[in-house]
UniProtKB/TrEMBL annotation:
Compartments in which it is found: Endomembrane system
Protein name as catalogued: NCS2 family permease
Predominant cellular place of this UniProt entry's protein: membrane
Family: Belongs to the nucleobase:cation symporter-2 (NCS2) (TC 2.A.40) family. Azg-like subfamily.
């Protein structure tokens, strides 16, 4: 009975899926984005500092807030939008929140920053309700839309390879191969996990990505049991490696439960106080900045995910995009109220889509799994933090196939698409990649004598991007 009800509500037959596939897809997405439960509070706790509360308590509260905000957004995604997309406080957006709070040029409190997130969410809800967000996104030039998927893929690959210590970075942020890869068990175990996952996927095995993540985690424990420890020797200058917080096999001896960790009142509702500290000019700039970054970050992510899932129509547009956009808007508003940075669609949702997730049931599974972590948040520490990144590299490789839709022999396609693809990973920002494509498109079109093909709104959007970056890069310090 329950199976039939879910199948009818989410339209399994219409979307060519079934309950087992959706559950597997949801579990896969959860495994690849659950890191945010730990990473988001580790970033925000630097900026959000309620008086009289210890840093450890703040971290725990923010973990709970992260879970709740993500669940709210994903319930809307599941029951209203019916799309297989996970949402949570976004990476990059939380770092930007931190930058804004710590910027001496702005001088605003964390409460005021939360107020800005809340206002941003309300604006998104209004614009989404009247269809303006979808209209703007549908104005994206075709080559930019086609380039988004591959750009996100490269972005994912860089993140995954670095956090698995397969690649390294130097002080100028140049990426290279880990110079001690063969001596670094984290890199070796991760590399084996990637190839195992790719082999399973190539054989068509269902759940290959989950199996790869679990196998990589087990490999870490096996290596630890054999007495292997992560490489900690000297590296050639100026090479640096990401540090794994729990090593190869995080222990469970320090896991403790404390009900006080679930009392989020010192943070929740802080946005109300933030409105009392507002300087209207500075506040308006912060709201616009949050709004701008999230708008185009979400637009790029949804376009890329829609392409991966086969949702885009013959014009390259995402049908009923206003529904997943509303989930993003509601999540952001709830996040501002609870006490976290902007909630957005996660590119890691591509892992669940790759496993066959096509409906809101996938998002519902992710939401439920997020909530189930509430009583066991401390246990997340026993999963090696490098293991989930196996999925990012595998999915990144699969997302490159979208570049075949780009007309590479036409410079009015290849230049905007190429810039979109390249700028995303090189600047670690989906929004920056879209901006590069949007600015270049009308320029190369006009240069080719095809200015009549450019919609006036596309010229306006390109100009808006230029003005935004001029203002932003002359204001933030």
């Amino acid at each position: 009975m329950v199976r039939e009800t879910l199948a009818d509500y989410f339209g399994f037959e219409e979307h060519g899926t079934n309950l087992e596939t959706e559950i597997l897809a949801g579990a896969t997405t959860f495994l690849t984005m659950s890191y945010i439960i730990v990473v988001n509070p580790s970033i925000l706790s630097i900026a959000i500092t309620p008086e009289g509360v210890s840093p450890d308590r703040v971290f725990q509260m923010l973990s709970v807030i992260t879970i709740l905000a993500a669940a709210v957004a994903m319930f809307v995604m599941a029951f209203y939008a019916n799309r297989p997309i996970g949402l949570a406080p976004g990476m990059g957006l939380n770092a930007f929140f931190l930058t804004v709070v710590l910027s001496p040029a702005l001088g605003i409190s964390w409460q005021t920053a939360l107020a800005a997130v809340f206002v941003e969410g309300i604006l998104f809800m209004i614009l989404t309700a009247v269809g303006l967000r979808e209209t703007i996104i549908n104005l994206f030039p075709e080559p930019v839309k086609y380039g988004v998927g591959a750009g996100i893929g490269l972005f994912l690959a860089i993140i995954g390879l670095q956090f698995m210590r397969i690649s390294a970075a130097d002080t100028t942020n140049i990426t290279s191969l880990n110079p001690v890869l063969a001596q670094d068990p984290v890199a070796v175990v991760s590399l084996l996990g990637v190839f195992l996952t790719l082999a399973l996927y190539a054989r068509g095995m269902r759940g290959s990505i989950i199996i790869g993540i679990i196998a990589t985690a087990i490999g870490g424990y096996v290596a630890s049991a054999l007495g292997v420890v992560p490489y900690s020797g000297q590296l050639p200058e100026p090479i640096t490696l990401y540090q794994t917080t729990g090593g190869l096999a995080p222990g469970i001896d320090q896991i403790t439960y404390d009900a006080a960790a679930y009392d989020i009142t010192p943070i929740a509702g802080g946005f109300i106080e933030g409105f009392q500290q507002v300087d209207i000019v500075t506040f308006s700039f912060v709201v616009f900045t949050f709004f701008f970054v999230d708008f185009f970050d979400t637009a790029g992510t949804l376009t890329g995910l829609g392409q991966a899932a086969g949702f885009l129509d013959e014009d390259g547009e995402f049908p009923e995009m206003e529904k997943p956009l509303m989930a993003d808007a509601v999540g952001t508003t709830a996040g501002g109220i609870l006490g976290t940075s902007t909630v957005t669609a996660f590119i890691e949702s591509s892992t669940g889509i790759e496993e066959g997730g096509r409906t809101g049931m996938t998002a519902l599974v992710v939401a439920v799994l997020f909530l189930l972590t509430l009583p066991v948040v401390p246990l997340l520490a026993v999963i090696p933090d490098f293991a989930p990144y196996v999925a990012l590299v595998v999915v990144a490789l699969l997302m490159f196939q979208n570049v075949t839709d780009i007309q590479w022999d036409d410079v009015t396609h290849s230049i905007p698409a190429g810039l979109t693809i390249a700028i995303m990973p090189l600047t670690h920002s989906i929004a920056n990649g879209i901006a590069a494509g949007m600015i270049s498109y009308p320029i190369v079109k006009a240069a080719k004598g095809e200015a009549s093909d450019v919609h006036i709104a596309q010229w306006i959007m390109a100009g808006a991007f230029v003005v935004y970056y001029v203002v932003r890069t002359n204001t933030l310090a």
